[in-house]
């Protein structure tokens, strides 16, 4: 923003003073307009990123649900085989890779769930109303109002 011009000892006419005032107000509004456009563009990008993070987090949680379901099915299969048929237990172990497949699925599922929760939280934080306020513009308008108040004294 340009600095106010000191015209305290200036003997200009009233129309010149009004013209200068109008020019300075126009320049102020143009500068503030550029600032708010820039900040709104930043906030729109923040909303897009937040939405993308929420979508990615939801997809990760969905994958985690499928993988954890697979781990649960493998574990229940092994448990039922052990409980009801000792011969089937050895064939179930062979089919399930001695239980390691269930553990691997469990680990992968938990990993996807953690990533999904982190992405959902980041996206939610980006979309909170307090993070979408154009703070720089509000600060600048406040400073401009204070400056105008001081200049009119």
Description:
- The chain is an all-alpha fold and 153 residues long.
- Helix content is 82%, strand content 0%.
- It contains four helices and no strands.
- It has helices spanning 14-84, 86-95, 100-126, 135-151.
- Helix 1 runs antiparallel to helix 2 and helix 1 (14-84) packs antiparallel against helix 3 (100-126).
- The longest helix is centred in the N-terminal third of the chain and has 71 residues, at 14-84.
- The chain is rod-shaped.
Q: What's the end-to-end separation, in Å?
A: 21 Å
Global outline: rod-shaped
Q: How many strand units? A: 0
Biggest sheet overview:
none
The residue ranges in which pLDDT falls below 50 over 5 or more consecutive positions are none
If you compute it from the alpha carbons, what radius of gyration comes out, rounded to the nearest whole angstrom?
Answer: 32 Å
Nearest-integer average pLDDT = 81
Treating each run of at least 4 consecutive H or I residues as one helix, how many helices?
Answer: 4
* Helix-strand string: HHHH
Helix content: over 70%
Give me the secondary-structure category: mainly alpha
Briefly say what this structure is.
The protein has helices at residues 14-84, 86-95, 100-126, 135-151.
Q: What's the layout of helices and strands?
A:
Layout (H helix, E strand, L loop, with lengths): L13 H71 L1 H10 L4 H27 L8 H17 L2
Helix pairs in contact: 1-2, 1-3, 1-4
Key terms:
single chain, 153 residues, 4 helices, 82% helix, mainly alpha
């Amino acid at each position: 923003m340009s600095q106010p011009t000191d015209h305290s000892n200036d003997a200009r006419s009233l129309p010149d003073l009004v013209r200068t005032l109008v020019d300075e107000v126009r320049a102020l509004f143009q500068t503030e307009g550029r600032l708010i456009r820039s900040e709104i563009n930043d906030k729109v990008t923040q909303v897009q990123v937040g939405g993308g993070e929420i979508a990615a987090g939801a997809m990760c949680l969905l994958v985690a649900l499928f993988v954890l379901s697979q781990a649960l099915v493998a574990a229940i299969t092994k448990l039922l085989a052990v409980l009801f048929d000792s011969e089937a237990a050895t064939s179930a172990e062979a089919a399930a890779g001695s239980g390691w497949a269930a553990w691997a699925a469990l680990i992968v599922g938990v990993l996807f769930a953690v990533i999904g929760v982190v992405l959902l939280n980041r996206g939610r934080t980006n979309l909170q109303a307090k993070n979408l306020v154009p703070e720089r513009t509000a600060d600048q308008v406040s400073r401009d109002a204070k400056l105008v108040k001081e200049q009119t004294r």
